[in-house]
Amino acid sequence: MLARRRRLAGGLSEPERTLRGVLLSEGRRCSSEGCRCRRGELHGPYSYLAVYVDGRSRTIYVPQGLEDATAAHVEVTQRNEALLAEVSQINLELLRRRALE
Ligand SMILES: [Zn+2]
What we know:
Layout: H1 2-10, E1 22-28, E2 43-53, E3 56-62, H2 67-96
Antiparallel strand pairs: 1-2, 2-3
Helix pairs in contact: 1-2
Bound molecules: zinc ion.
């Protein structure tokens, strides 16, 4: 269990790239009457990052050219958080066994 925990922790990478959220791609309607988007031909798609800030869900626009970097940050974050969730499970088990050091 300790060896597995060490291996999991060793798999963490680039914590400075942590960016929590979900990347979305959505079309948008503009404000001009008579535009084609009013007939269902939406503008975009544009990229957004759905994030939780202060317990509320927010959608942040991802500027063009930053989609790949944003996706890479989100991906490394999800990978790290999956590893940390497993480390936490191991530590919880160690606590139950009164073996948490
Ligand atoms: Zn429009």
